[in-house]
Amino acid sequence: MAVMAGLQGGVAMASPEAVTPYPSAFFAPAQPYSAWDMVARLPGFSFDGGDSDVRGFSGAGGNVLIDGKPPTSKAESLESILRRIPARSVVRIELVRPGAPGLDLRGSALMANVVRGRETTTRGRLETGIEAHRRTTAPRLSAEFSRRSGDRLTEISASIGREVENDKGQGPRLRVSPASVVLRDATYSEDQAHRVAEVTAGHERDLAGGRLRLDASIKADRTRADILEVARFPVPTIEVVVERERVLEREIGGHYDHALSGRWALETLALLRATRTRAGDRSVEGAEVSATRLASDGRESIARALLRRQGAATTLEVGGEAALNSLDSHSGLSENGAELALPAANVRVEERRAEGFATLTWRASDRLTVETAAWLETSTLTQSGDSALKRTFLYPKPRLLVVWAPDPRDQWRLSLERRVGQLDFADFVSSTSLTSNTVTAGNPDLEPDKAWRLTASWERRLPRDGALVLTVRHDAISDAVDRVPVVGPGYAFDAPGNIGEGRRTELELDATLPLDALRVRGGLLKATVIARRSRVTDPATGLARSISDAPPLEGAVHFTQDLPARHLRWGIDATLAEDKPEYRFDEVRHDRTAARLAVFAEWRPAPAWSLRLHADNLTDGEVVRRREQYAGPRGTSDLKRIETRVMTHGAFAGLTLRRSFDRL
Question: How large is the greatest C-alpha to C-alpha distance in the chain, in angstroms?
Fold first, then answer.
């Protein structure tokens, strides 16, 4: 199928096999308020917000582009950025697959590209809202402003508000022996909330034949948790715990793109990010006083460049990324004023990382696309303080992707790649939880896990813009990261560590099903469900088990109905129950979250006004932590006790009022 010539909104249009465009008219019946509302309705697309904790840009930016480019910011979530883009400014949203000219998919098999109009306009939005919880409220206020004139765009936003953790609450905390004899009976209550203030600014313009974008942001997050535990048996006691944390994030970055010739283009990106964390917990139970403290300062500096050559049937991309990252962390634990020794309590970690890559995409025909890629990553990790160590890693990461579209309705994707995990600097530093009475040690010998991943996907386009996407993934893992004991003179603590080989298989279903054929006019059902099975050898017992923090099932189902004649949209959201196991050397822990149900209704009495009402956790789903605690290492010690803590937060509701304005 021929490629459509020309540029619209600065992004090249390609054949339907590579790009499926959805114009703004496609989303009009849903009366979207922002680009986020539009992305949520894309057929067969499952949003991935990325992971800002991943150092560097590869794998951190999610699966949505804006005007063909990934957002520069890592401090601000991709969802927040999309919510700031008014739906009125979006010309179309494209589903992009390998082979789309002029777009860097960063190894993804499917991405969304939000294309905005370029007419001169001034836009703004004011938003206020409040959530009412069982024991508190959470107000918020935000404002946004943007001005586009010619080739220049300026954007400013600010927000302040309170966010309540809805997986905290109240309930029993029971400790029993292996024979079910009650050892301790208590009630537990935990309330946790954040006070968040954030300011962002961005500016882009044409410069020296290219396009420059600059972004800056600052975010302050203050968290407080108040915990009360009242024991009735065997001895009446009261424990009060207060947890505090203050995080300040500052970030500045930008990217510059330049077309060097008819076929060559250069993309560059740079970012500087600094995070300051100060935290402390204090527990009082009778005459016993325990306290923890944490002071950490992290910095991330990244520079990335990509050179692309666009041919008639091939696309070649070569580039590299360099990063300098550091973390200075100091933690402590005291009991009744006496300091306790913790392993790796005072540590500085510095990483110098470089990555080179090359990708060649060949559009063999309208039905077949082949993409080959290779990354070479090298890093030097230096630790000083309580543990002194210097290590150098070198990892090749090849990748092969084949996309075959036998007809306009079906597409098959098969990929094989080598993936290398990224070490979390926090895993090198000890941490303490007073509420669970556990110490997690830092592990200076931790190495990243490696895996060969084989992925097969089938995408089926259904009538009335429906879609089904079925994906199977299998990982063959080496140096799997899980839990290991760290033993020293007079102590034995649990820590992150490498436990050898493992495997993981996932089956994912993404479905977009319009319900008009079932006489539910304007109805849409979207679902994402992931079934997971993993296996590693437990270092404590020598037996096979699942990987820690890998739930066997997770997913969500969303129903919406658009009633444009009434300027109304409503829906139901259901989240499946989830069970996350964690296998410590002397404990098996399960964190279970019950299924939850939420409803919402959004009314648009006028184009500039929006009123949204939502009610969440209508099922009052329990959050259960079960701890099977052993007298020592699980493989050689008897089960000592079983502790079960149940919390319910209760249903909560919220109201949001938005007012937007436009001026051409």
Answer: 80
